[in-house]
Amino acid sequence: MTLQVKLRDTFERNGSRPALEVAGTVLTYTSLYTKASRIAQTITKIGVEGEFVGILAYRSVIAYAGLLGTLLAGKAYFPLSQKFPPSRILDMISASDCEAIILGNECIPILSSLLETYDKELMDLRILYLFEDNSTITLLAERFSRHEFISVHELSPDKCIHYPLAKENDYAYLLFTSGTTGQPKGIGVTHRNICAYLEFILFQYDYCSEDRISQAFDLTFDPSAHDVFTAWLSGSCLCVVPASSLMAPSRFIQEHKLTVWYSVPSIPMFMDNLNMLHEGRFPSLRYSMFSGEILPKTIAQKWQKAAPNSQVINYYGPTEATVNITYYNWDREISSDLCRNGGVPLGYPFPEQEIRIVDSDGQELPSGHRGELIVSGSQVASGYINNPEKTADAFQILPGEPDKTWYYTGDIAERDSNGIIYYYGRKDLQVQVLGHRVELSEIEGILKKTTGTDFVIVVPWPQNQISGHADEIVAVIGMKPDSSLAEIAIDTCKSALPSYMIPSDILFLDPFPISQNGKFDRKAITEFVRSTRSIQNGKNYE
């Protein structure tokens, strides 16, 4: 069964129950389904070609109605963020061959910037909108007349319209992750992939129609799919956390009486710094879920005390394996002793998925040995869209197993004698910054071009060798200090990269340290960053 069919069935069953709370608005299953159906009918009537429909909306009714309407129409939704610069949105649209975009009122400025800057590079777009004040859209439509602006309100509902039925191997959604060449990589997740994931989650945890589920992740970040679909397939209410409450959601959790919370660990870490994790503070929570970066043992302990009625769960999984593929249920009696290097274990693979830890030749390693973590199973995507070279690098068939494709995560892990999996950082220059996967070489490529030198190293900071997690990015340029060049470099990054990839500081180092083998000495450069930041901040990062 596809996600399209599952959603249609649950929305028809839950009628008057609340389905969505967002931006002060509460929509029942019936009212949200009505809005989504109008969007689905519009997509079908105008004959949108291609597999993907873009969603350019942010934490609004149209974002979620558009997502649902796209799936009901048998298409795959493709979220675009207002936080992305226009150049990145252009790259994603071009890579996906997306011709239709559902627009939220709050994202008109980013659409305007996109059209004003890159209109010639864009294919002809069909832009669907669903709001009453059309004055700004009218001006855009007049100025950029080759694009088609379509008001969903102007098309009357047609209950007799038949939507194309999606198949299991059709895409359900498309997300992009950072790429080493500077070009984002598109990951198409099929209905089979996401339904396999949801089948395990809904079996493992007893979601019910009385649940109130957080939605803290941006739609461009794959754990958002967990929130949205566990809520709507269980008949519960999806409660969208406003941007102003994201990093300190204590009051939101309490006032909205949430029963399920899911976020990156950075959020409770920030809350802990603000002394918000008081014992017994979140009694309504039944489940507290974390993923995207290492979950510190101390935070798991404090959150468990703050949410005493909650099961704390640590998830792990790359986007290529559909949200998460391992889980660890925190046990307040024994888990503290099982943590390594201050981090909660990745735990165990989902029962229907396969995980191996292999050496450089792809040979499985015995327990107690570290190697690269690779994954296979019904959740694993088939590759990157329109990118056969990157697909061939990351998705491989092992000798003697012609019917299985394995995704090489680039993560270093170890399995102990009890089958518990532990994480030991990244194999390459990829790091986690505030829960987002970042290729440092992508940032370095932009800085090299901007500064005119190849002597560029980007350092995650503060650097955690075990977790691969960092709070920010610091760039080191191999030349004499130049404040004007530093400003230009930062501005260039702001125009090309998401906010979490923009360096917080540009440092200059001349001469640039070189190791004995002729390569840039990253260890020496990191030490330079450590000493410089310690002096700047008056802190000791030893």
Number of structural domains: 4
Note the total helix count: 16
Gap between N and C termini: 53 Å
Nearest-integer average pLDDT? 91
Describe the fold and architecture.
With 542 residues, this protein is of the alpha/beta class. The chain has four domains: 194 residues, Rossmann fold (3-Layer(aba) Sandwich); 109 residues, Rossmann fold; 77 residues, Luciferase, Domain 3 (Luciferase, domain 3, Roll), CATH 2.30.38; 108 residues, GMP Synthetase, Chain A, domain 3. Helix content is 32%, strand content 24%. It contains 16 helices and 27 strands. The strands form seven sheets. The chain has a five-stranded parallel sheet with strand order 4-3-5-6-7, sandwiched between helices. Strands 12-13-14-15-16 form a five-stranded mixed sheet, with helices on one face. Strands 17, 18, 19, 20 and 21 form a five-stranded antiparallel sheet that branches. A hairpin with a 5-residue loop joins strand 20 and strand 21. It is globular, with a radius of gyration of 23 Å. The protein starts with a helix and ends in a 5-residue tail after the last helix. The mean pLDDT is 91.
Write the layout of secondary structure elements.
Layout lengths: L2 H12 L3 E5 L2 E4 H17 L6 E5 L4 H12 L3 E5 L5 H11 L3 E4 L4 H11 L7 E4 L5 H9 L4 E4 L19 E7 L7 E6 H14 L7 E4 L7 H11 L3 E4 L9 H6 L4 E4 L2 H8 L13 E4 L6 H10 L4 E6 L9 E4 L5 H4 L9 E2 L3 E6 L11 E8 L10 H7 E2 L9 E10 L5 E6 L3 E4 L2 E4 H12 L4 E6 L7 E2 L1 E6 L5 H14 L8 E4 L13 H16 L5
Parallel strand pairs: 1-11, 3-4, 3-5, 5-6, 6-7, 10-11, 12-13, 13-14, 22-25, 26-27
Antiparallel strand pairs: 1-2, 8-9, 14-15, 15-16, 17-18, 18-20, 19-20, 20-21, 22-23, 24-26
